[in-house]
Design a protein that fits this description.
106 residues; 4 strands; 44% strand; UPF0145_dom_sf; UPF0145_YbjQ-like; UPF0145 protein ACFFGE_02515
Length: 106
């Protein structure tokens, strides 16, 4: 699956626009992550426990996006973006979205 944050895909021609495609996940922190993250935040710098949580959530949303695009018949995604919202304290929704398209080499 080809993906890009740009509106076109260099070296390829969009032959069909399928439409908006998305992948979503909802993740919550856990007691261990909060404890480790709290200690790391007191020391300053990178908070690895939360970085791992954020990366896992983004990967899940991206994988879901790819699956939805394939199911819709697309072979590429343009204008890919991420968004995240806190649903309630400690629970975050991560959305990955873009435009599903069919491309062929130019």
């Amino acid at each position: 699956m080809l993906t890009t944050t740009a509106n076109d895909l260099p070296g390829h021609r969009i032959v069909r626009v399928i439409g908006v495609t998305r992948g979503i996940t909802v993740r919550s922190r856990n007691v261990v992550s909060d404890a480790i993250g709290g200690l790391q935040s007191m020391l300053g710098g990178r908070v690895g426990a939360y970085v791992k949580l954020a990366e896992t959530a983004r990967a899940e949303a991206y994988d879901s996006l790819i699956q939805h695009t394939r199911e819709a018949g697309g072979n590429a995604i343009v204008a890919l973006r991420y968004d995240a919202n806190e649903i309630m304290p400690g629970i975050t929704e991560v959305l990955c979205y873009g435009t599903a398209v069919v491309v062929e080499p130019a």
